[in-house]
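ZP: hey, is the nickel (II) ion complex queued? I don't see it on the tracker
AM: it wasn't, my bad. submitting now with these inputs:
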Amino acid sequence: MVEIYPILQHPDPRLSQPAEVVETVNDAVRTIVKNMFATHYAQNNCAALAATQLGVPLRITVIDFSEKKDEPLCLINPEIIERSDEMLNEFEGCMSVGGRIHERVKRHRNIRVNALNEQGASFELDASDFLSRCIQHELDHLDGMLFIDRLSPLKRKIVDRKFSKRLKKG
Ligand code: NI
């Protein structure tokens, strides 16, 4: 049985809580990963999800932005171990931030990541451009941070105003 998790929406306080390290990659963790991919593939226009967005406070992210949704990448306890000085500044959105908000966020163009796979084996991954941005966005989630937390104070104020209007409307 696969479970589709609800995606928490900003300003849910759980989105601001850093996730816990996965101590052992066991069957319970693999079930969570399976459910996370099912949740991911049930969305339109979803590139990746972090467990924190799904009410699961563990350091796990699932990524797949291939056209056919057949290139699943799961990172457990991911850590960025190298970053390029070269930066990107592209538009980002987030499944947990409604209101069609897309803003430019500065990210490293190239990163090297260390993580565990679903078998609990450690591996390293070099990521560039979109994948690099995607992983940095997801790692932020695992640290309790949203992309709107990286905006300039002025831009953030505009986003906050949009949200308070939406909340008033219900
Ligand atoms: Ni996101």
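AM: back. The chain has a mean pLDDT of 96.
ZP: great, adding it to the tracker
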